[in-house]
Design brief:
alpha+beta, FAD/NAD(P)-binding domain, Elongation Factor Tu (Ef-tu), domain 3, 2 domains, 6-stranded mixed beta sheet, 17% strand, globular, binds flavin-adenine dinucleotide
Length: 438
C-alpha cells in the first residue's frame, strides 16, 4: 500500500504546455496546491510564439474527432475525465471537416485563463534549471530547455531523438482563390472548411520534382535524419517515390476524382485570415519554400506568415525508465508527462498529463495508483510507454493496435465500450470530481 500523502502537499509541474496544463488542471481542481513553472515568455523556445500556456506549435488540428477513430476515442475518454484541453479545443473550434481544429490563439488563451482562475494553481514564469523537490511532474516537452535537460540527464538519459517539422502558414488575402475550391474530403462538416488546389498529372509530377531538388536546411553532421513516420517532411515523402504524396497528404479521394493530387489548406483562425498547408511540414530553406510552394496554382503571390522549420525532439526510452504510473524509476517522486515520455501528438501529450495528475490524486487517497483499464485508449498510451521493446522504442500516436486486439474490427461501438470502462474505473479508483465515489 502506498504511504498516504497529505492531500494538501504541494506539487510542482515544470512546463506549461499541453501535458503540464492538463496536469495542473486535474490537481488544481481537486484542491491540491500546484506550482506550474513555465519559462515563456521570458525564455522563449525555438517554436513557441506567445507566452500563453498550451500553445500549439505546428498544426492547429488535434486530429480526428470521429468516435470510430483512435484519436476520437482518446478525446472522448479524456472528456469523460474532465479534460481542460479537450474542453477548450471545443470552445475554440474552427470548422475542419472531421478534425478537431482550433483557433490556436483563442485555444491557448482559454487554457491560460482557466488555470489563472484556479486559486490552487500558482503560475511561475521562470526557467527551471534543477529537478524540483517533493512530488513533481516534468512536462517540458520535446524542446526542453538545455539547463533542465542537463539536470534530467543526471537521472535518466534522454538520448533518443527524432526530427519534427512545422508546416507553413500563409495569408488568405495573398491567395488567388479563383484557382482553388472550398470543400471538405467526402463533404464532411459544413462542406467548405478547406481550400483545395487540384493538380493535374503534369503539374503534380513537376511539383514533386521541384520538392526533391530543393535545398534543405542541413542537420548536424553526426546525426542521422530520423523523422517521425507519421509526420514526415513533405520533401522527404516526395523522395520516397513519385506517388507517395498522391497517396498521402495530397490524395485527391473525396475531393476531386479528376485530379492527380489535391493540396489542402486548413483555416488557421476564427477570422479566416490565415491558412496552413496541410502535410507540408518541411525543412526546406525559407527561400526554397517561397520558390517551390509558390508554383502551386493560386499561391503565386502567397505571403508567408510562418515558414516551415525542423526541430530535434528528444525523449526518454520509457519502457526502461518509466513505471506504469509514469514515475521515473530512478527518482520516484518525479513523474514525466507529455512528449518527453515518447507519446506523439497534442492530445496524446495532454492525455499523459491528465493521467499523471490522476495518479497523484490516487496516492493522495491512500491507494496504489491504478492505470485505466486495458482496452481503453488511455491504457494504450501507458502500454506503449511501458511494454514496448526498448530496443525499438519510437514515439507513437494513439492507434487501434495500442487500444487492443480486435479494436479496429469493433470500431463502430468501440468509443461506447471504452467510455464504459473509463467510467467504471473512475467510480472505483478516482476522487468524486472525476466520477469516483470518494
Ligand atoms: C516542431 C514540432 C512540431 C510539432 N507538430 C505537431 C503537430 O502538428 N501535431 C501534433 O499533434 N503534435 C506536434 N508536435 C508534437 C507534440 O504534440 C507537441 O510538441 C506537444 O506540444 C507536446 O506537448 P508537451 O506538453 O509534451 O510539450 P509542450 O507543449 O512543448 O510544452 C512544454 C512546455 O515546457 C516549457 N519548458 C521547457 N523547458 C522548460 C524549463 N526548463 N522550465 C520551464 N518551462 C520549460 C516550454 O516553454 C513549453 O511551454 C510537434 C512537435 C514539434 C517540436
Amino acid at each position: 500500500m502506498t504511504e498516504r500523502k497529505p492531500p494538501q502537499a504541494p506539487v510542482t509541474i515544470v512546463g506549461g504546455g499541453l501535458a503540464g496544463a492538463e496536469c495542473a488542471w486535474v490537481l488544481g481542481r481537486a484542491g491540491v496546491p500546484v506550482t506550474l513553472v513555465e519559462m515563456r515568455p521570458g525564455v522563449p523556445s525555438a517554436v513557441h510564439q506567445s507566452g500563453d500556456l498550451a500553445e500549439l506549435v505546428c498544426s492547429n488540428s488535434l486530429k480526428s474527432d470521429d468516435p470510430t477513430h483512435p484519436s476520437g476515442i482518446l478525446k472522448r475518454e479524456m472528456e469523460a475525465l474532465g479534460s481542460l484541453i479537450i474542453a477548450q479545443a471545443r470552445a475554440a473550434r474552427i470548422p475542419a471537416g472531421g478534425a478537431l481544429a482550433v483557433d490556436r490563439a483563442a485555444f491557448a488563451r482559454g487554457i491560460t485563463e482557466a488555470l489563472e482562475a484556479l486559486p490552487t494553481v500558482r503560475i511561475e514564469r521562470r526557467e527551471a534549471v534543477e529537478l524540483p523537490d517533493g512530488d513533481a511532474v516534468a512536462a517540458t516537452g520535446p524542446l526542453t530547455s538545455e539547463p533542465f535537460a542537463r539536470a534530467l540527464a543526471m537521472v535518466v538519459p534522454r538520448d533518443l531523438y527524432f526530427y519534427d517539422a512545422v508546416s507553413p502558414v500563409v495569408a488568405l488575402d495573398s491567395l488567388d482563390t479563383s484557382k482553388m475550391f472550398f470543400g471538405n474530403r467526402y463533404g464532411k462538416g459544413e462542406g467548405d472548411d478547406y481550400l483545395n488546389i487540384p493538380l493535374p498529372e503534369g503539374p503534380y509530377a513537376a511539383f514533386v520534382r521541384a520538392l526533391v531538388e530543393a535545398e534543405t536546411v542541413p542537420l548536424p553532421v553526426h546525426e542521422k535524419a530520423l523523422f517521425f513516420e507519421g509526420c514526415l517532411p513533405v520533401e522527404e515523402m516526395a523522395r520516397r517515390g513519385p506517388d507517395t504524396l498522391a497517396y498521402g497528404p495530397l490524395k485527391p479521394v473525396g475531393l476531386d476524382r479528376r485530379a492527380a493530387a489535391v493540396v489542402q489548406l486548413r483555416q488557421e483562425d476564427l477570422d479566416r485570415t490565415a491558412y496552413s498547408l496541410v502535410g507540408f511540414q518541411t525543412r526546406l530553406k525559407r527561400g526554397e519554400q517561397e520558390r517551390v510552394f509558390c508554383t502551386l496554382p493560386g499561391m503565386e503571390r502567397a505571403r508567408f506568415l510562418r515558414f516551415g522549420q525542423v526541430h530535434r525532439n528528444t525523449y526518454i526510452n520509457a519502457p526502461l525508465h518509466l513505471t506504469p504510473d509514469l514515475r521515473l524509476k530512478a527518482r520516484p517522486s518525479l513523474r514525466l508527462a507529455g512528449q518527453i515520455t515518447g507519446v506523439e501528438g497534442y492530445a496524446e501529450s495532454a492525455a499523459t498529463g491528465l493521467l499523471a495528475g490522476l495518479f497523484i490524486l490516487q496516492e493522495r487517497m491512500g491507494t496504489e495508483p491504478s492505470p485505466p483499464p486495458e482496452g481503453t485508449a488511455l491504457f494504450g498510451l501507458i502500454r506503449h510507454l511501458t511494454r514496448s521493446d526498448p530496443a525499438r522504442f519510437v514515439p507513437s500516436n494513439i492507434t487501434f493496435g495500442l487500444i487492443g486486439e480486435g479494436a479496429r474490427a469493433r470500431r463502430r461501438d468501440l468509443a461506447e465500450h471504452t467510455l464504459a470502462l473509463i467510467r467504471r474505473w473512475a467510480v472505483s479508483a478516482l476522487p468524486a470530481q472525476f466520477g469516483g465515489r470518494s
